[in-house]
Every structure is written in C-alpha cells, then in structure tokens.
Amino acid sequence: MATSEVKVDERRIDPATGEYRVIAPGQSFLSVTEKITRIVLTPHTPLGWFAIFGIAGAGTTMLLVALVWLFLKGVGIWAISQPVAWGFAIINFVWWIGIGHAGTLISAILLLFKQGWRNSINRFAEAMTIFAVVCAAMFPLIHVGRPWLGYWLLPLPLTMQVWPQFRSPLMWDTFAVSTYATISVVFWYLGMVPDFGTMRDRAQTRLSQYFYGMLSLGWRGSVRHWARYETASLLLAGLATPLVLSVHTVISFDFAVAVLPGWHTTIFPPYFVAGAIYSGFAMVLTLAIPLRKFYHLENLVTDRHIDNCGKVMLATGFIVCYGYGMEAFMAWYSADHWEAFTFWNRAFGPMGWSYWVLITCNLAIPLTTLWSRRLRTNMLFMFILSIIVNTGMWFERFVIIVTSLYRDFLPSSWGTYRATKWDYMTYFGTVALFTFLFLLFVRFLPMIPMSEIRTMVPGAKIKPKVTAEAGD
Amino acid sequence: MPPREGTYGLLAEFETPGDLIRAARQARQDGWRRLDAYSPYPLEEAAEAIGFTRNKVPLLTLIGGLMGGVAMFSLETWISTLAFPINVAGRPTYSWPAFLVPAYEWTILWAGLSAAYGMLALCGLPELYHPLFNAPNFRDGASTDKFFLCLEALDPKFDLLESKKYLEEFAPVSVVEVEY
C-alpha cells in the first residue's frame, strides 16, 4: 500500500525524517512540566473521573463479594470440575499477565533499542503492567482452593518440614511472577523519583508537599545522581528484558510440560510471549486513546505513538498467526491421532465457535487493517481494534485451556464447560479493579515521565559546537 | 554528624544546559573539585564536565545477581537432595535443569534490587533535607527548567567574595549564597 500518498496534517510530520513527530512542536521544559503536573496538583478533579471511578469502585465491590463467597463455599461455585479443572481462573491469569508484558516491553526493550518515542507512554504502560500483575497474581492464589495456605508455595522453614517441589512448572511460576512483580514495581517507582521531586517543588498545599517530598526521597537532580540513575535504569532495562521473556515462557511451560494433546508443543514459549505483547499493546491503546483525549495530551502522546503501537501489533500479530499455523501443521505432521483430533475438535467441535472468534479477532480483522497508515492513526478505529484484539487474546487462552481439556484421551471422561455467574463476576471484577487502580494512578501520580520528555524538548540536547567552544 | 553552620556553597543559575556545561568544565579545569551541577533531566555531558565518569552501580548489580542465583540454586539443591528428597516419576533428586528456572529468576531479582538500592545508597538517598533546598530559585527551577552549578565551601579554593566573582564571569542568571 502506498502510504506516502495519504494526505495528513503537515504540522504533525517532522520534515527531517518524514515520520510523525514524537512530541508536537513548540514545547518547552516549563510547558511540559506544567501540563503534566497540573493534572495531578489541581484541586479540581474532573467529574468524568468521578463517574468512571464510581463504576470501577462498584465493580471492585462486586469482585470482593465474589471472593468472599468463594472463600466461604470453595471453588465449587465456579464451573471448574473434571475434566476442565482450569477454567476462568487460569484463563484470566494468563490473559492479565500477558497484558502486563507490553508495559515492560515499552519501558525496557524499547529503552535498550533507543526508541525515543517510548518516553511519553512508558510510565502509564508500566503502571498498566503492575495493575495487570496484581489482577493476574490473584487468580492462581484463589484457584488453589485454600488461599490461606498460599505461603506453602514459598520455601519457608516450616515446622512440618515440608518443602516445595522444584521440578514443577507451578513452582517456577511462583518465582517468575513474584520476581516480575517486584522488578516492575521497583522500575516504575525509580522512574518516578525525579518526577516526584518536581511535584514536591510545584505542590502548593502542605500535605502534597509532604506526600511528594517523601516519595521523591530528596531527589535534587545532581548530575552525579543522574549518572548513577541512568546506569541503574539501563541495567534494570537490561534485566527486565530477559525477565519479561522468561515470565510468559515459564507460564507456557505450565501447559507445554504436560503431556496433553494441544498443550504439549515446543512452539508455546515464543507463541505465548508474542501473544502477550500483542494483547499488551492493545491494552496500551485501550488506555492511551481515551486518556490523551480526556486530559488533552495530544501534544505529548501523538499520532506517532498510536501509529507505532499499531506497527508493533502488526508484527506480533503475525508471530501469533505463525503460532496458530504451526499448531495446525503439527496436528497433521505429527501423525498423532490425539493431536489431530484435538485440533479438529478445537475448530469444528461443540466449542468450535470460540476458535473462530479467536481467528476473527486476532487475525482476520487486525492483520488486514493494520497495514493502512490512515487506519493506524484513526483513533476511533484503533480504540475499537484494541478492544477486539483483547477479546481475541482472551479467547485464545479460553481455546487453549478449555478445548484441550474437555475432550481428552478417554471418551468416557469427556465433559463440557459452562462458566457460572461467579466466574463472570470475578473476571469482570478484576477488570474493574484494574480500572480502579489505574484511575487512582492518573489522579495522584505523574502519568507521563517529565524528566524523560524534557530530553526531547528542543534545546535539551547539547549541540556539538558548544562542546567545542568549551574546550578552548 | 554535628549540624553544620555557615555557608554550604555558591549556587549559580543558568538558563541553558550549554551554559552550565561550559561553566562546569571551566571550573573543573581551574582546579575545583568540590563542585556539583544540577539539571532537571539526565545530562551526561555535565557529569563528565565535573569529572564524574564512572560509577559503581554495575559492579553492585553483578555481585547482587551472582549472589541471588547462587543462593537460589543452593537452596533448591539442599531442599531436593537433603531436606525433603521425594521421588517424582523416578527423576533424580538432584535434577539441576529444573532448578535453573528459579535460579535464573532470582539472579534477575537480586541484580535488579541491587541496581536500584545500590544506586540510591551510592547517591546517599533518601536524604529529605539538603542545604540547597534553602535557595528559593533552586526550589523553583532545579526540577523544572533551570540549570545550576554549585561551588561548595569545602573546596580549599573557596572564598566567598573571590568565588562569587569567579562564577559571575560565566554570565549566570544569578549567583546566590547557600546556607546550611
């Protein structure tokens, strides 16, 4: 497709590169700082914020109700049973963890690749990661049946002298997810420390001065501190990159290590990681598009960001597509009767509709439309598409878990799966909890990293001639 | 440490990063050693200009990572072979390939925590009070859009009047004295 022929607003294009600008022209250190701090430091909370916060709060309450009932009655209130013992809980766990991956990808991998455009969106993408991990980590814990014994997963010197069994992928999960959560929080917080310094200096009320002053740890912007800070950020990015790849790999081991047809395959680790990034970028768009409109951040989160997210989704979407293709191919090439049956049953069995929802949402719609630059910079289209892809990715996990389990080797043990209202309440409850936490984040913390945006403002970079002059 | 009194240093304010770096480089060349520069975003050239080119964060990260990995692998080996040996499908009790995954995660965990806490410790943070916060123009600008060079009173070359004149040669916006 000839993208150069598409007419676009000239001011949004950088004449030097022909690309969309990362931030709009005419920004200064002060304007960037004011724009971002005002959202947080204003005493006036927008009414729309309260409205969504109220809905999200109600949803979170629904989650609490569902959890209390679960703890009273046990996991029998969910639809899980034999043969489908891993229902919504594990679907949601994998889905939420996957969503979190894009945050780490944006903050770590794109930092290592020196992709300057990431600076505007990395903070809230990291926040998205953390809240997604909060939602994700809850599911295995409540799924174990006796969540108050969850600490048995940890290698603690208990009086009964029972220790965890380290050959199990479920133990690997414990360490992968807890490390991921910890490193994500540390990376996110460290990124905010200089911005908390700015907030402290610009806060008008005593309470907010104390609040941001404490959080800033006394940051004063010494260049020695900045030098160490930059080293630490780069190291954390370098560590988070293999970490994020390992997390979804370990989660895919939960499936791939089992001998079940449909799970026992070597394509799972890369296919899970690509799927995670695909759904995570979709979630970034779901959050970024309304946020930039609501808070008028179009100058900082520009069309370039949305365009680039679209490109990343196109690339990862094709890796996912390859994964689906490989599953189908291996079903035939393995010449394994059960493997072939599982695939056939997935696509054409009683739950075949879920497979076609997944193909439509993940492949048919996004991979045909995302080629167009015009569509990639159409906000309404990208917002709807992001919802479609997230739905598709949820169905991917549904297909992997339910359709592999409900018809296994012995026809006498075949069953079916139909989620109960408690399943739905827990699932939509975590969506509400995620929104709830995210709204608190945009209200009280700087959602765009000011110190990183400042490096992109004209005049921030030292011109070579200045250095030459200083030398003489 | 007993509370200090008197002058902490002289603080010169600059409008642009280029001015700051020029001044910092000159001061360093003229023999100043107790000096620091402040900017609202990471400014690598300024750190180099005051002679700060290496830091110990990578070393701490390496040590932390190695310790984390070794600790987890040893723990797994001890648990699986000595403390609680169980036979899972006839696999050896010392099944080291399976132990690599948690050891790998802990390498990253402790390397990351060492990088973060090591950086803060080397910077001497958290340090909620600092004499520089006494300067109103520092509070207003250092974290937003202004650039500062501070010549500290601990430097043997420091003399309140002479050093003030010296700083004014760089044409800063202002030079103020900062008290403890």
Q: Report the helical percentage of chain B.
A: 40-55%
The SSE string of chain B, one letter per element, is: EHEHHHHEHE
Beta content of chain A: under 5%
CATH class of chain A: Mainly Alpha
Count of discrete alpha- or pi-helical segments spanning 4 or more residues of chain A: 17
Query: Low-confidence spans of chain A: pLDDT under 50, at least 5 residues?
Result: 1-8, 464-472
* Quaternary organisation of the protein chains: heterodimer
Low-confidence regions of chain B: none
Q: At the fourth CATH level, what is the homologous superfamily of chain A?
A: Formate dehydrogenase/DMSO reductase domain
Largest interface: A-B, 68 and 72 residues
The backbone outline of chain B, from C-alpha atoms, is elongated
| CATH topology assignment of chain A | Formate dehydrogenase/DMSO reductase fold
| Biggest sheet descriptor of chain A | none
The class by helix and strand makeup of chain B works out as alpha+beta
Number of helical segments of chain B? 6
- Provide mean pLDDT of chain B, rounded: 86
CA radius of gyration of chain B: 25 Å
- Could you give the count of β-strands of chain B? 4
